């Protein structure tokens, strides 16, 4: 502990003073506590920067204060929808990088953030809670066009409508949702959930024009002449082919085309054996859909299971449903007979040095090949946008490039989502929101306020021993045999109300006061003032403090820091 001699005088904000016999000054620490908010790693790990800590602790504190749960759930919903208008959707399909970052993993298991979001989203739909505008009665005359009703387009339209702009969405497909509807199977994301959350956005006054493809039915130049700004969020619905002989045969699909047709409700005959080439989410979805169509399904992937980019729970789900995996194999040729797929000749691979993705590069093993039988082959290796009507926005051979705020090389045209690069739903939501904010600021001749977030707090700066070990709540899963029999039935059930509250109370409130009273309990000098009313902040009486540091050392969430007021 640093020691400093101080003279006896009254400095209420500085070191406390006490004197011994004869009035001589005592030696004591010059350090004093202060409250310093930090950024929790869950928020730092969320592409949207959602106030996850605030949402969970709102529910937890409401429970401790015996508030009606309806009140705290409603608060949580409007906290989420400050940034994300699709909580029930994201609570089902987001791979939750926030949970990967959660400090709670150093105690027991990460908080079930995604499941809590789903509960709040579903609860809000059941209660028919509307989305709110940023300011009641605020209206602007400038009309905005949004191309595409996927997550990026929906987010852009939502935030512009919140700001008071009239927005029109142009969607090429018969229904809204983009890849949410046409790329994700119904057993993962029920269609009624998509419909309900989209409708809430439309209820803000957003107009939706279905079956209108910009570039085919209406040129982009016309939209530019009729609207003050245009947002391009067309997604990446065009699957890539394998580039091997024989792939034009009947029974050959790209992953996006296969899922699109199934998700439209079309009846597709896939035969008895289906091969799916690829290791991402589209490949897993395609294989699981094939199982629901009654076929044996095998995923052929050129690396190993460790390198698969697909979401781990979805891979596990596929294994449970009987999907087979053939690793370290790459297609060489689609085998055909009478114009139909009959199998695939494959090359045996091995892993070499890491490539630009950080994964070990697959390398062919000379002279080693094998053949797999198939009635249908799905190439789920990648996908790209259909740039019809917006090709001039591309940067060379790359996709559309967007600068800070979603700006493109054409004035008045903005972009976000998979048209920029393949990414998560939550990334698309973020890009749509940022573009909306940029459009708003440009039209209002305003400057966006840039805030630097506080530093991230990690587990080594917290008193983890304070937290009682409690395993996280698990969502109930449908039995694999029942899943296959019921086809589109949703596999995972959401958390119960009790589970949601309990899970919210597992949040460690990293970097912000959770009103635990630990600092008050450890302070022997009455320097900590405990509020009389729950929810009000704790305070320090600096004139009582001797700088012992116990409050900072024992603060579970790392909210208290020590500083020297003489230094500043």
Describe this structure in words.
The protein folds into 3 domains: 41-131 and 452-504, Orthogonal Bundle (Fumarate Reductase Iron-sulfur Protein, Chain B, domain 2); 144-237 and 385-443, FAD/NAD(P)-binding domain, CATH 3.50.50.60; 244-379, FAD/NAD(P)-binding domain, CATH 3.50.50.60. The two termini are 18 Å apart. The longest helix has 19 residues, at 425-443. The strands form 7 sheets. It has a 5-stranded parallel beta sheet with strand order 6-5-4-7-18, with helices on one face. A 5-stranded parallel beta sheet has the order 9-16-10-11-12. The chain has helices at 41-45, 52-64, 69-80, 87-93, 97-101, 113-126, 151-163, 179-182, 191-202, 220-226, 255-263, 281-292, 312-320, 425-443, 480-486, 497-504, 518-522, 550-554; strands at residues 4-5, 27-28, 32-35, 144-147, 167-171, 207-210, 229-232, 238-239, 252-254, 273-277, 296-301, 324-327, 329-337, 340-354, 360-373, 376-379, 383-384, 413-415, 528-529, 539-540, 560-563. It is globular and about 90 Å long. The protein has 568 residues and is α/β, with parallel strands linked by helices. Mean pLDDT is 93; it is low at 1-26.
């Amino acid at each position: 502990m640093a020691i400093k001699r101080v003279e006896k005088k009254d400095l209420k904000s500085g070191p406390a003073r006490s004197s011994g016999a004869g009035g001589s000054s005592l030696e004591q620490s010059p350090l004093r506590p202060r409250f310093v908010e930090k950024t929790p790693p869950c928020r730092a790990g969320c592409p949207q920067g959602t106030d996850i800590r605030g949402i969970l602790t709102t529910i937890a504190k409401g429970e401790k204060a015996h508030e009606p749960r309806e009140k705290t759930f409603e608060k949580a919903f409007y906290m989420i929808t400050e940034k994300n208008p699709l909580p029930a959707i994201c609570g089902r399909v987001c791979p939750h990088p926030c949970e990967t970052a959660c400090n709670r993993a150093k105690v027991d298991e990460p908080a079930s953030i995604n499941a809590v979001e789903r509960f709040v989203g579903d609860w809000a739909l059941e209660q028919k809670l509307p989305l709110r505008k940023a300011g009641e009665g605020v209206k602007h005359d400038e009309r905005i066009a949004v191309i595409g009703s996927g997550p990026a387009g929906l987010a852009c339209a939502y935030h512009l409508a919140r700001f008071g702009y009239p927005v029109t969405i142009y969607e090429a497909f018969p229904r809204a949702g983009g890849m949410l509807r046409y790329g994700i199977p119904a057993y993962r994301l029920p269609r009624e959930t998509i419909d309900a959350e989209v409708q809430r956005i439309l209820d803000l006054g957003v107009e939706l024009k279905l079956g209108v493809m910009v570039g085919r039915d209406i040129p982009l130049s016309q939209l530019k002449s009729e609207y003050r700004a245009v947002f391009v969020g067309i997604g990446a619905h065009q699957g890539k082919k394998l580039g091997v002989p024989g792939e034009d045969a009947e029974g050959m699909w790209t992953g996006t085309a296969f899922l699109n047709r199934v998700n439209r409700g079309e009846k597709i005959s896939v035969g008895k054996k289906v091969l799916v080439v690829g290791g991402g989410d589209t490949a897993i979805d395609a294989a699981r859909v094939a199982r629901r169509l009654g076929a044996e399904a095998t995923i052929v992937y050129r690396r190993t299971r460790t390198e698969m980019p697909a979401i781990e729970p979805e891979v596990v789900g596929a294994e449970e449903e009987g999907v087979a995996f053939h690793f370290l194999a790459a297609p060489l040729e689609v085998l055909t007979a009478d114009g139909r797929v009959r199998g695939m000749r494959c090359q045996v691979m091995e892993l070499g040095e890491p490539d630009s993705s950080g994964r070990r590069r697959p390398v062919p093993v000379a002279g080693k090949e094998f053949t797999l039988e198939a009635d249908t082959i799905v190439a789920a290796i990648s996908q790209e946008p259909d740039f019809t009507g917006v090709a001039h926005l591309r940067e060379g051979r790359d996709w559309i490039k967007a600068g800070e705020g979603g700006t493109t090389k054409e004035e008045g045209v903005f972009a976000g989502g998979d048209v920029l690069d393949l990414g998560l739903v939550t990334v698309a939501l973020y890009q749509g929101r940022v573009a909306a904010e940029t459009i708003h600021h440009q039209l209002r001749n305003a400057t966006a306020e840039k805030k630097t977030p506080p530093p991230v707090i990690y587990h080594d700066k917290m008193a983890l021993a304070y937290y009682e070990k409690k395993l996280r709540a698990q969502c109930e899963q449908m039995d694999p045999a029942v899943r296959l029999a019921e086809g589109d039935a949703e596999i995972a059930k959401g958390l119960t109300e009790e589970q949601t509250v309990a899970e919210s109370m597992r949040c460690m409130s990293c970097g912000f006061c959770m009103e635990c009273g630990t600092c008050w309990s450890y302070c022997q000098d009455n320097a900590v003032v405990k509020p009389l009313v729950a929810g009000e902040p704790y305070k320090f009486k600096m004139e009582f403090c001797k700088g012992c540091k116990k409050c900072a050392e024992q603060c579970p969430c790392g909210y208290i820091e020590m500083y020297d007021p003489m230094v500043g």
